[in-house]
Amino acid sequence: MSEAPLHPSIVALVSLAANIAVNYPKQGLCQVDRLRQPGLSQAHIDPVVDIARHIRDEAGEKLNFSFDQAMAGIVAPAAAAEGEACCTPTAAGQSCC
Q: Which domain of life is it from (predicted)?
């Protein structure tokens, strides 16, 4: 028994988030158009954009921190520090976990 395919709006939301999170040059704008065509509200799109930007920015900060430590000759731990959250909420309060 095969599963039903994902709804196109779910695929577009995932693609939009991935494009933003990886700083893809087209930024997922074609997905935004695809989401608006069937009438998905901006209120449904905005949290996805917020979370994706937050993950992108947090990843950049962590990468910069690791690079700075390596340049200073400090060995960075392989895993997150004990007690460190796996993710933090976005500035708008959206949970990314």
A: Bacteria
Determine the pLDDT at residue 69: 87
Neighbours of 93 (CB within 10 A): 8
Interatomic CA distance for residues 24 and 18, integer angstroms = 8
| Cβ neighbours, 10 Å, residue 32 | 19
Distance (Å, whole) CA 4 – CA 10: 13
Give the residue among 82, 24, 74 at the shortest CA–CA distance from 53: 24
What is the pTM (predicted TM-score) of this model? 0.71
The two most distant CA atoms of the chain are separated, in Å, by 56
CB neighbour list of residue 88: distance below 8 Å, 6 or more residues apart: 54, 58, 96
